[in-house]
Fold this sequence. Notes:
single chain; alpha/beta; Rossmann fold; disordered N terminus; UspA; Rossmann-like_a/b/a_fold; Universal stress protein
Amino acid sequence: MPMPEAASSPCPAADPRVVLGYDGSTSGVEVLRWAAAQARARSCTLEVVACWPDPGELFVHEVPGHFSSPRNRAVADLEHAMEVTREDCVGVEVVTTVANAHPVDALVSRCSPCDLLVVGASDGRKPRQGLAVDQLCSLLAPCRVVVVETAGRPMRATE
Length: 159
């Protein structure tokens, strides 16, 4: 996947971040690498957010003290991604979050106007209001959104 040059200007606000929605996919690891480069270039914290259950799955709330297979899968996928991108994240403050929420809700609620939200391109599922996660984030986020395309296609960004 071609990676565009990372932005070189530092973030303008007090605690700006690059917020990444990580879905556990193989292409998600490449998106994580790109987001880490953005955070390094901007001198920002990178917050990697994994949500469960997956869009399209029956939504279940976490019950303390009970095992949750979807939560366990999200945690394992996030740990694996952080392990394989360890070298890519050197010099970047990384915060990981596993959220029991729809990805759009979890990601948009974490963003402020000066942040950068990074998501991978949709796999074609349209889980809410006939729109995919990347489309909804682009419409609802209070910040710039970058959608990293798969299969070597160029990225698109919204302001």
